[in-house]
Amino acid sequence: MKIKPLYTLVLTAMLSSCSKDFIDRPSLSGTTTGNYYNNADEVRAATSTLYSGLPWRNYESRAQDAIGDVMSGNMFTYTDVEYLNFTVSSASERIGASWGAFYKIIGYANVMIKTFEEKKAAGGGAAYLDPAIAECHFIRGMLYFYIARTWGAAPIITDPGATALSGNFNIPRYIQKDVLRFALEELQLAETGLPESDVPGRVTKYAAKGMMAKLYLYNKDYANAKAKAEEVINSGKYNLVTDYSGMFTKMSMNNNAESIFSIQHQLAQDPWGTGNIKNPDRGAGALRTSEADAWEMYVPSLDLLKEYEFGDLRRQWSVMEHGWTNPNWKPQRVNAPKYNAFMANGFKYDTLQPTADGGSLSPTRANIIKYFAGPGKSFGGDPVLGQNSGNNVVLLRYADILLIYAEAVLAGGTSTSDAKALDALNKVRSRAGLSPKTAFTQNDIMHERRVEFAFEGDYWYDIQRQGYAKAKAMIEKQNRGTVTGATYITNFTEDKMYLPIPSGEIVQDPELGKDPVPYYK
Asked: How many DSSP H helices and E strands does the chain contain?
């Protein structure tokens, strides 16, 4: 889906907020239910804001990497070391950024739900208002699912306007199981109200079913996880794409047959965040050109590199290592004759060549391909504008549904050879060029999920849902060091299973620093 240009009122809304991130809501000054939202185009232009990279920017840029992949042991970094060594404090920039992004988007969804319901009550068309309301419920449910997994107990806000008018900003944290229940109820509302199909990029009831399957699995409700995943599989609406790497590196593959929900990006530098800005953080420095920035802030961990089976094609589709080539990329630089000669016949990832002459010497001698679009259009890659590419960021794809189904059939057991579960698992393995399994265990599933979704911000939550004892064992086995020295975690304690509430939020609302309370009475 290409996001339509936003109306002035929506852009204005994005710049207006309350003093607390978790009660942010857009201002609708100048807009009333009487003079706007009179047709589907106006309503869909508003809900397109929920998909845009603009409100998601502070999460997907670095916070997603730090929480989902650095903390899980999939990435090494010299920048977010507190996530690498589990010394994260409530003052962490990434915590504040993700918290702010999540609650800001929830604020937009909250106001849209209220506005659209008022419009419908005043005689507005249910045919276009109901699906929009359901879109908002999907976003709200998905984000509270993220919040519950990231912070555990957290505030739930559904009417920020009423909260602001009341003057009572002492919002408590609610227990995690209630936040998860609220998220599930939101996704159920979305499932009921969303259409069977829509234009590429817009969520449908199958996106809601897929996210519900993921939530059920997190809750170890295997029967419902299996049922919802099976509904998505049986719909026939999604497939595994053959070009795995292209899902993340080619604009032409945005909203492909595997994508179920993606943050929608456009190739643009203004406003900041419209484009995908993961490009430079992941790109090998040897690919920095006049068109594309690349400073390799995050690189694959040695532990992840060890995880790939021999012959797993996902390794070369996700990671650049010595000998990796792309003959189409021909980066060139001004006043760099040795570099230009080395790259003249195509990019070569080389760990022996001096870096000034085109060599790559990251701390783990590897770099990330996912979400790196290349050195720029003039040099044989996809278009890049400095730090910006046009690649969508995928948050739910069909491979996840297949692996959810397989794990739900296993249902915490020792192993299974169930035919349908094996078929789901082996579809994912077959694309990766691996031989099929005849039975699998929970460890097999965790392995498969780790390499399949590496660098997609998800593996920390997979570790977390194993429970503290197993999570601790997994973390302590990981080599989190570099080629010059191994590093192992010895300080992993149960309080590190969830991140702390941002300190600035607790200062403004001391209730957030207290024990959580039930949301449901």
From this structure: 22, 8
Residues 335, 439, single domain; the answer is no
Residues 6+ apart with CB under 8 A from 133: 112, 113, 116, 117, 120, 193
Residues 468, 341 share a domain: no
pLDDT tens string 195-214: 999 999 999 999 999 999 99
Distance CA(114)–CA(427), nearest Å, equals: 43
CATH code of the domain containing 127: 1.25.40.390
The secondary structure of 381-438 as a DSSP string is SS--BBTBB-PPEEEEEHHHHHHHHHHHHHTT-S-B--HHHHHHHHHHHHHTTPPPPS
Average pLDDT over all residues of the chain: 93
Q: Are residues 369 and 404 in the same domain?
A: no
Residues 35/518, Cβ–Cβ less than 8 Å: no
46 domain-assigned: yes
The total number of structural domains in the chain stands at 3
Per-residue model confidence as pLDDT tens digits over 237-294: 999 999 999 999 999 999 999 999 999 999 988 888 899 999 999 999 999 999 999 9
How confident is the model at residue 112, as a pLDDT?
Answer: 97
Residue 318 lies in a domain: yes
Do 43 and 23 reside in the same domain of the chain? Answer: yes
The pTM assigned to this predicted structure is 0.94
- Which domain covers residue 371, as residue numbers? 310-386
39 exposure class (CB count in 10 Å sphere: 0-12, 13-18, 19+): exposed
Are 65 and 91 within one domain? yes
Summarize pLDDT for 87-134 with one digit per residue, the tens: 999 999 999 999 999 999 999 999 999 999 999 999 999 999 999 999
